[in-house]
């Protein structure tokens, strides 16, 4: 036990009680002599406690707040104070017994500590805010849609409720909408809230699988069905999805002849493996998606009308992200929290960057938005994401889209020629590489990061495409 004489009384306590806390404490007597200083305060003042105890406050800290509280007999709250370039906040109060001031006490908080606490508080507030948003619509939306971020006042909420009604039946569902709006995410949620939730969820991207392989991919094959066929044959996606759901993504890209085979399978509720004879019963929920106008394709003779009616028990159109700006905000907010956690950062978004995101055409929808944000989080070197941290091509698109947009100041546009490294070189590979990379990124963005479409746009083979992604470190 240690202590001090206070107003002729010996006061004893264990010093750790006041030394372990992250707030400085000073106590002085009725004459202004320092009686006690805890470790935190001593650190702020860069002194050893014993060097100061017994000295008059005015001799150690001229204009000290504690002395002012003592002499004016009035509490001094939230006073900013400075000591050798260190800023801190001081609260001080006289100690009054039986109407007589017998001393004073003050607390000191390091301004940096205050900053740290404010930052932590802001982080926590953002997190709570995000949880509140989640909670608000999670009371309305079922857990199966927990990954699907929507604002509480989003038009998507109504659509989701309708989807859920359909999900609980066996009816085939067609999901429509631009690339990247979340059709696959919705298909997963439909499966999870369906009667077949316990079974597998199998995805087939009808645009990505070469036509020649599609039939065996879907329906499987028997041993010896064709050259290169595996021993014992192979199960198709429909067989793999048994008891669960099959999600036929980009159904509009399915070859016309195969459409007829698919229709037969759906009508007869059974299928036969390529090169086989035995009928295998079909026990799957059918969910399809497309970004194409199937009705127009039917008129143009590119999509079978009978298949259209078979897959379209009911259909839902997911609006593009630019048509539901409240969702952009909600997605940005939550994605930033997730990215900060992932990259160990504590970044916030500047107003300019937020304005740009909200006014962006976002042709690649949520996928494009998330990619742009991740790029910005990785590139950002300070505490706030600026417009210039977003990908150049992304900024260019908003400028092209809305030249009238006064909200995106021209100063935020980054000119690629600003990067002078090696710009004087005539090395052909260097320049060809730069152009190739730019074209690949452009194709990816135009296709809403749909690889198959990007490959088509670029007119290169899948292998070359993936080789280039690796070579230019383009992460998808
Ligand atoms: N509302 C949302 N909340 C959170 N993430 C979303 C949302 N919508 C889409 N995403 C994310 O955006 C990306 C694209 O979503 P998804 O693949 O489901 O879109 P899609 O419409 O099926 O695209 P495509 O037609 O190109 O296949 C995924 O990473 C998905 O998780």
TrEMBL record:
**Protein keywords:** ATP-binding, Nucleotide-binding, Transcription, Transcription regulation
Ranges where the Sigma-54 factor interaction domain occurs: 149-378
Which InterPro entries does the protein's record reference? AAA+_ATPase, AAA_lid_NorR, Homeodomain-like_sf, HTH_Fis, P-loop_NTPase, PAS, PAS-like_dom_sf, Sigma_54_int
**Keyword flag Transmembrane helix:** no
User: Does Transcription regulation appear among the keywords?
Assistant: yes
Name of this protein: Sigma-54-dependent Fis family transcriptional regulator
Q: Which Pfam families match?
A: AAA_lid_14, HTH_8, Sigma54_activat
**Mind listing the GO molecular function terms for this protein?**
ATP binding; sequence-specific DNA binding
Q: What CDD domains has UniProt attached to this entry? A: AAA, PAS
